[in-house]
Amino acid sequence: MLRDVAVLALEGAHAFELGVFCEVFGIDRGDDAFPVYDFALVSATGDSVPTRHGFEVRARHGLERLASADLICVPAYDPGVRQPDALADSLRAAVRRGARVLSICTGVFLLGQAGLLDGRRCTTHWRFTGELARRHPEARVESDVLYVDEDPVITGAGTAAAVDTCLHLIRKEHGSAVANALAHRMVAPPHRDGGQRQYRERPVPRDRTGSLAPVLAWIEANLDRDLTVEAMARHAGLSPRTFARHFRQETGTTPLQWLTGQRVLLAQHHLETTHDPVAAIAHRAGFGSIDNLRHHFARRLGTTPQAYRHAFADPPATA
Description:
By secondary structure, this protein is α/β, with parallel strands linked by helices. The protein has helices at residues 15-25, 85-96, 108-113, 129-135, 161-174, 176-185, 213-221, 229-236, 240-251, 255-273, 278-284, 290-301, 305-312, and strands spanning 4-8, 38-42, 48-50, 56-58, 71-74, 100-104, 121-122, 140-141, 147-150, 153-156.
């Protein structure tokens, strides 16, 4: 049973993730029948540490406090700054004796420094998954999920995923009723659909000065049509095989993969900016049916068109 929680106050820590840990585990809600934890804020020195935002956090406990913790939480920090080796040593010792460690966003780099990611699935903010995989090639980095539970090592994606990850652990330890009630208290969804793909920045358009620029523009203007590789090749004045070769050279992908990506982007745009029926958007984007749109949304974004619209659409205008 989870009873003793220690949160690391790291130099350069991000206040939001640090605050989520304090909100979930550091508030006594016993009068409302919530679990109560023996909570401690810990630093390498047992003293104040500067956050990335210009203010300091006072931690009354040093690393010796980690020896009793059932759970050690690691917030985001600047991954370019190596944390003291004593922190990494303490995390290794905690896991050896059976404690859990939970990181959010770039906090995972401290787990990597401690050697706790080797052979394990893990995640971080989508901006840092490539760097995490480069630094820790033995880790199995997952770039799409909101969190990964490889008990006793739990890793969450960026910022708001701190809430998802903590609620997951509460649900695991205390059941869905407690997790749902805590989510309601925090005015947060008990569970979010999909993964990180739906929150990533839109891809920057590639250079359109190549030989296929006219045909790319033509494809984008005709996404609602039944476009085959043969039809695209004819418009380019090339054989399908030659067209496919040139297409990969200029875009880095195949014609059909690129076409599907453009159709998903168009559907995203209409879901965000209009209140048109999803069926109409599916036809306008060239998917033909809602089922086809759902299929490609799930593969590309890890969510459904309806859930995406709920998360990102402009609210309806009021009279």
